[in-house]
Amino acid sequence: MTAKHHTIRNIVLFTNIALIVGLTSSCSLKKLVKNDEETLTKSLYMQFKNPTIELPDDNSSDEKSHVVSEQVTYTHADNELSEKLRNETTNKKSVNEMQTLDEVVVTAKSRYTPERKGKVNIDFVIKVPKELLSSRWRVTLSPQLVCNDSVIQMEKIVLKGNDFVLMQEKGYSDYDSYLKSIVNKSSYDSVFLDRKLTEKDIRNIQLSFYRKYYSDWKKQKKYLEDLALWEKRQNFFTMKQREFKAETYPLFMRKIYEEKIERTLKGVDTTGVYHRYMQEYNKRANEMISHYENRKQESLKFKPIDGQVGKPLFSVKARTFNKQDSINTAKFRYNFKEIATNEMKEKQKDLAFNKIVTYRYQEHIRLDTTIEAGKDFVYLYTKSYDVIPGLNKIQIFMDTKVDGIDQSSYFVPSTDTLFYFIASTAQLADTTLKYKVSNLTRIGYNQITAYIDYLPKGNPFNVNFKDNKEQTQKIIDFIDAIRKNKVYSLDSIEIQVSRSLAGKFETNQILSEKHAQAFKNYLEASLGDSLQANTIFKEEGIGEDWNSLVREIQRSPNVVNKEKILNMLASAKFPDLTEEDIRKGFETDYAFIADSIYPRLNKTTVVFNLHRMDMTQDKEVRKEYKGDQYAEGLRLLLEREYWKALQILSNYPDYNTALCLACLGYNGKAYELLVELPKTADNEYLLALVCYRMKKEDEAVNHLSEAFKLDPNKRYRIKLDAEISELVDKYKI
């Protein structure tokens, strides 16, 4: 076939493919796109709402990260009670939660996130307003992580409407049909090969191979028969030679012997007798041997075939029909026109895919889901990230693109950036130790949770009811500790009371307010004389504590239908109805929740706001520099280059050295060093941490309690240290 014919055939094939693809695409679009005069994404250009990323409610994070800054925005609210944002993001296992936006949304823009074994957990809430969701387009949300100078693409969130999904599936289905029409090369024999002609060719070739073999076999047979006769003749004459020697030699030797005897008896010399007889013997022997040798030199009548000298008949080899012969025979019996068409379709696969499939399935996807138009989309995005030495901050922003089934698009400006400040155990380092420092802070804060039982009638609080006295004593002991150290003065005491879901929602709100007021009255009456006159008591009724309920259910291994219950709590609009639905739908789980979790929701939290009495300014610092080498070791510790830091700090056995050992996992050595140091809040706090790691939990509790007594501000650190947080939760410190 000429090059011109090849070119014409290729053009025809390409035209057919393009025609098929074009018809498929146009039919699909005509069904889904009703108005060709306007793009489907026009409405997006006529509105101002965009997707957002926000830090989740602090109570919904497993890491209990600390929010350091907030941005408050206000949105229009209708007359119905809206859901709270914290209920939208409580269940991390949910892939998509549709919620009504709050009237007031508090959006945190930065937070501390704790390092755990070289990793930090990053979580944020993605919100897409319903105005950006439609059945006829796809929204691609692309979070970006900024680490130092690098921008890392995180897994995407893809939200697709029903019509978009149908179009996408139709494209892939059409392309699959196209691929199935292409014959695989392994199937060419069954599809394109003319088997009848090929089998005829094979039979002819096989017959020619046999004929050649038969000719060689026949020649070799005649040769072997002639060789057998020749060898028989050789053996005969060889035997004759041996017989002559065997008979003649003894005869001559006997004659020599007899003549020597005779001569000896006659007294005649025997010299020369042996030589004479042996000359005659050799002459006769040579004549006979030469005669027989001449007979043996007669040549063979038939010659062997090449390479088969002296070999048996069965060793004759012949050319047999093999796989390669089959291939060579068949390769000229294919339908080459159909093969050329098929191969052109194979070469045009990528082009056909681009024509048939308008929008490909995307890669690196966290969530690919079909959304329900007309509702806002809310998703809690979590990611674990390896922390490198020196990394102190991670930033997150998000790009958004909308693709319509008519191939129109809309690009959303990048969201505001979220900041995650990395908190690690190394941040417990005491930078003041490079100086001889007195570093004081005037303002203090602490809180204690007590489980107070309130009476149903009359005065709700009675100190002698059940174990109220013991619970109240914890609060009084803490206040006494503040008074005895003569450092802090109480500015205010806030009493916050929450309730479980047992009972009516409105009733629980009223009861929590009454209980808070009653307990405040008791503390005010009991401690008023012992406190400064300007100490202020405040109270707040929290009502039903749904946030704590969600956290308790998440942590509990005994709730079988955990996800379903959490989803019901997250989407609840009428609290009492939701509780009743849970009770009826999951009787066993509800019985456990009511028995084991509800009692922990009935709690009283006392918040203490403090200030140092010996200070007029917020901070006061005194310091004396230790030296550049120690400062370098401290810098390396803060940069989390622990091995390098230890090489320097090991020359200075102090608190920072112990901290470096603890960061490296040498908890025993850190413990040995810390117990030799003076008792300070930092030392006691770190001792609590290493003791907990060493399974010395009782000792850890004592050290942590002592740390809180020495420095109540240490409680602010709890959320950033996993071991301390676990210790506090386990022992209710």
Major pleated sheet: 12 strands, mixed
* CATH structural fold name of the largest domain: Serine Threonine Protein Phosphatase 5, Tetratricopeptide repeat
> Cα distance, first to last residue?
90 Å
Strand segment count: 18
Q: Specify the structural class.
A: alpha+beta
**Count of discrete structural domains:** 4
Q: What is the number of helices?
A: 23
Report the CATH C-level class of the largest domain.
Mainly Alpha
Average pLDDT across residues?
Answer: 81
- Described by the principal axes of the CA atoms, the overall outline is elongated
User: What is the CATH architecture term of the largest domain?
Assistant: Alpha Horseshoe
Strand percentage, roughly?
Answer: 15-25%
Low-confidence stretches: 1-29, 60-108
| Rg | 50 Å
- Please name the fourth-level CATH homologous superfamily of the largest domain: Tetratricopeptide repeat domain
Counting copies of identical and different chains, the oligomeric state is single chain
Helicity level, as a percent range?
40-55%
